[in-house]
Design goal:
Shape: globular
CATH topology: Rossmann fold
InterPro entries: 6-phosphogluconolactonase_DevB, 6PGL, Glc/Gal-6P_isomerase, NagB/RpiA_transferase-like
Distance between the termini: 22 Å
Function: Hydrolysis of 6-phosphogluconolactone to 6-phosphogluconate.
EC number: 3.1.1.31
CATH architecture: 3-Layer(aba) Sandwich
Helix content: 25-40%
Family: Belongs to the glucosamine/galactosamine-6-phosphate isomerase family. 6-phosphogluconolactonase subfamily.
Number of helices: 7
Structural class: alpha/beta
CATH class: Alpha Beta
Largest sheet: 7 strands, parallel
Number of domains: 1
GO molecular function: 6-phosphogluconolactonase activity
Bound molecules: ligand LXAUTJHC
Order of helices and strands: EHEHEEHEHEHEEHEHE
Length: 223
């Protein structure tokens, strides 16, 4: 992995947005469409603000989440809600949202309706991942019920339940994340930096983010 540290969070968010825009532009020179997967949670909002303002042929861009919490878009915990509000707005409103949420009670029931559109947008041109202090990434959590499949299996998308996750989830698997042409992890604050350093010396079963580190650029700034 390559660790890039920034003088502050604002510069980090703008730099990451610039870098993603360049990767997508380069992809569009050679392909009809490009795709990017982004995290939810509390970290990426400012990078979304910067990216949504970027000049790009957004009509040829597929945008998806790396993972979603199985809650409705009216919930403040909905990652799709964050995406619509902060990324799929302004210039980026022309992008195509590849949904990771269906209107069913469980992710198991919803998955068949989602998989085709997700697979049509693969391989990802770029992926940005977040990471929790427990070293989960996307919704691949330590102790999760389908951890083994998510880390080592051939699936594209999996339902996931974990002690550290308050609601059921759906997540892209390590295979899909590692197949992305450009991979980034976005973290801020001392606790996550420490967790990342620990994860580098742990197995992916204990620290799922370890499965995605090879060849990935980690972007970090102090809070
Ligand atoms: O639950 C989730 O957590 C991670 C990390 O979120 P953060 O709030 O600590 O930035 C996030 O990357 C993931 O997409 C989300 O569903």
């Amino acid at each position: 992995m390559e660790l890039v540290t920034y003088p502050d969070v604002e510069i980090m968010m703008i730099s990451l947005a610039d870098r993603l825009a360049s990767e997508l532009r380069r992809g569009l020179e050679q392909n009809d469409r490009v795709s990017v997967a982004v995290p939810g949670g509390t970290t990426p909002g400012p990078a979304f603000d910067a990216l949504s303002d970027t000049q790009l042929d957004w009509g040829r861009v597929d945008v998806m989440l790396t993972d979603e919490r199985w809650v409705g878009e009216d919930s403040p915990r909905s990652n799709t809600r964050l995406l619509r509000k902060r990324l799929l707005t302004g210039r980026a409103a022309a992008a195509n949202l590849v949904q990771l949420r269906a209107d069913t009670e469980t992710p198991e029931e919803g998955l068949p309706a989602l998989i085709e559109a997700v697979e049509a947008a693969l391989p990802l041109t770029s992926v940005v991942l977040g990471m929790g202090e427990d070293m989960h990434t996307a919704s691949i959590f330590p102790g999760a019920d389908r951890l083994e499949e998510a880390l080592h299996g051939k699936a594209t998308l999996l339902p996931m339940r974990a002690p550290g996750a308050p609601e059921p989830r759906i997540t892209l698997t390590a295979r899909v994340l590692n197949d992305a042409m450009n991979r980034h992890i976005l973290i801020r604050g001392a606790a996550k930096r420490e967790a990342l350093e620990k994860a580098r010396h742990m197995s992916a079963d204990e620290a799922p983010v370890a499965a995605i580190l090879r060849g990935t650029v980690v972007h970090w700034a102090e809070d």
